[in-house]
Design a protein that fits this description.
The protein is α/β, with parallel strands linked by helices. It has two domains: about 1-270, Alpha-Beta Barrel (TIM Barrel), CATH 3.20.20.70; about 285-345. The chain has 16 helices and eleven strands. It has helices at about 25-35, 50-55, 75-80, 85-90, 110-120, 135-140, 150-165, 185-190, 215-225, 240-245, 255-260, 265-270, 285-295, 305-315, 325-330, 335-345, and strands at about 1-5, 10, 15, 70, 75, 100-105, 125-130, 170-175, 195-205, 230, 250-255. Strands 3-4-6-7-8-9-10-11 form an eight-stranded parallel beta barrel, surrounded by five helices. α10 (about 240-245) links the parallel β10 and β11 (about 250-255). The radius of gyration is 20 Å and the shape is globular. The N and C termini lie far apart (about 40 Å). The structure holds flavin mononucleotide (FMN). Flavin mononucleotide binds near residues 19, 22, 73, 234 and 256.
Length: about 350
C-alpha cells in the first residue's frame, strides 16, 4: 500500500502516467482490465523485494496491480470555459478509482477555479503539470515554465491548497536544461506548500523524452522531502522497478512501456511479490487486446481517430514479436478499422 494521505491510500505503488493523446478513458479502461490480480501473490519472505513490501499490506486483498491512474492533462483555460472536449476528457468510470486528474496552466485564479472543478468531478487527487516541454504550453507559462518561476508556483499552490480538500500532486522535471536543474528546490517548495505527492521525471525540459534520466536527482529528492516521491522515466520491467525503489522512491509511474506491454503493471507487481515466471502472451492475446481497445474507443472517438489509436498501440505491442515488422508495415496501410482487423487475423 502507498499512503498519500489519511484519505488516499493506493493498493499498490504502481501508477499509470498521464500521456496526452494516449491515456484517455478507453486506454485507462484497457489497462485496468488487463492488470487485474486474480490471486494476490504476496510473498513476504522474499528478501529481494523488502523495499516494495514495506509499502504493501500483506493481509489486504489486492484487486488490481495499478494503484492509481492519471488522466491526460487538461488545459485550465479550456476547462473553465466548459469546453466540451475537455469535459469529455475528464470522464472516468466508477471502477477506475482512485483517479487523479491533471491540469496545466499559469493564471492563478484560473488554476484555482479549475482545481475546484476537478474536486467536484470526483477526482481523488489533483495533479499539477510542471513538466510539459511542449512549446505551446510553455509559452503560455504552463508546464515546465512553472519550474522557472518558483515564486509564482508557490503562490499558485498556496491559493489552490486553500480552496480544495483533495490531495494535490505536482509532476516536475529535473529542470529547464543542464545548467538549470532546480528540481530539489522545487520539490521542497512543493512540500512546503502542502502538496501530498511529488512525481519526478528526471529529464530536463530541453531533453524532452530522450537522453539519460538523472537518477542522482531522483535520489536527492527522496532524501530531501518526506511526502511520497514517485519516479517516472524509462520504467519498463522489474529490473527498472527495483532500481528506482533502490533510489528511495515510494511509487513508480509507468508511461510508454504500457503501450508496448499493457500487462506491465501486473508483470512488475507479480515479480516484486516474488513470482519467478513471467506470463508469456500469444499473438491471439495481442489480437484480443486490440479488439477490446477498438470496442472501448467507440465511446470516445470517431472512426478515423480510432484507427490512429489502434495503429499507435499495434506499433508498440508487436515490437519483439516474430514477423512484427512486416505486420506493422501492413497494418499502417489500413484505411479503416475493418481493414485493420482483416489484416491482423
Ligand atoms: C505521448 C506522451 C504524452 C505525455 N503527456 C503527458 C501529460 O499530459 N502530462 C504529464 O505530466 N506527462 C506527460 N508525459 C510524460 C509521461 O507522463 C512520463 O513522465 C514520461 O513519458 C516518462 O515516463 P516513461 O518513460 O514511462 O514514458 C507524456 C509522455 C508521452 C510520451
Amino acid at each position: 500500500m502507498l499512503k498519500i494521505t489519511d484519505t488516499l491510500q493506493l493498493q499498490t505503488p504502481l501508477i499509470l502516467a498521464p500521456m496526452s493523446g494516449i491515456t484517455n478513458g478507453a486506454f485507462r479502461s484497457l489497462i485496468f482490465r488487463e492488470n487485474k490480480i486474480v490471486n494476490s501473490p504476496i510473498n513476504v519472505s522474499n528478501s529481494q523485494t523488502n523495499n516494495f513490501l514495506t509499502n504493501v499490506d500483506p493481509t489486504s486483498e489486492i484487486e488490481n496491480a495499478v494503484g492509481l491512474m492519471v488522466t491526460e492533462f487538461v488545459s485550465v483555460e479550456a476547462l473553465i470555459r466548459n469546453n466540451q472536449r475537455c469535459l469529455q476528457m475528464l470522464k472516468f468510470l466508477p471502477t477506475e478509482k482512485p483517479i487523479a486528474i491533471q491540469i496545466f496552466g499559469y493564471e492563478i485564479n484560473h488554476m484555482v477555479q479549475a482545481a475546484k472543478m476537478v474536486e467536484e468531478f470526483g477526482a481523488d487527487l489533483l495533479d499539477i503539470n510542471c513538466g510539459c516541454p511542449v512549446p505551446k504550453v510553455v509559452r503560455r507559462g504552463g508546464g515546465a515554465e512553472l519550474m522557472r518561476q518558483p515564486g509564482h508556483l508557490r503562490k499558485m499552490l498556496s491559493a489552490i491548497k486553500k480552496e480544495i480538500k483533495i490531495p494535490i500532486g505536482v509532476k516536475i522535471r529535473s529542470g529547464w536544461d543542464e545548467a538549470h536543474k532546480n528540481a530539489i528546490e522545487i520539490a521542497k517548495l512543493v512540500e512546503a506548500e502542502g502538496a501530498s505527492m511529488l512525481t519526478i521525471h528526471a529529464r530536463t525540459k530541453v531533453q524532452g523524452y530522450s537522453g539519460k534520466v538523472d537518477y542522482n536527482i531522483v535520489e536527492e529528492i527522496c532524501k530531501s522531502i518526506s511526502i511520497p516521491t514517485i519516479g517516472s522515466g524509462d520504467i519498463c520491467d522489474i529490473e527498472d522497478a527495483k532500481f528506482y525503489l533502490g533510489l528511495g522512491v515510494r511509487g513508480l509511474m509507468i508511461g510508454r512501456a504500457s503501450l508496448k506491454n499493457p500487462w506491465v503493471f501486473k508483470d512488475i507487481f507479480n515479480a516484486l511479490c516474488g513470482a519467478v515466471e513471467q506470463e508469456s502472451r500469444s499473438y491471439q492475446e495481442i489480437v484480443r487486446i486490440l479488439r477490446d481497445y477498438n470496442f472501448l474507443l467507440q465511446n470516445d472517438l470517431p472512426e478515423k481517430a480510432i484507427l490512429g489509436r489502434l495503429k499507435q498501440l499495434v506499433a508498440q505491442i508487436t515490437k519483439g514479436q516474430v514477423g512484427g515488422t512486416k505486420l506493422r508495415a501492413a497494418l499502417c496501410q489500413a484505411k479503416t478499422t475493418e481493414q485493420f482487423f482483416e489484416l491482423l487475423c
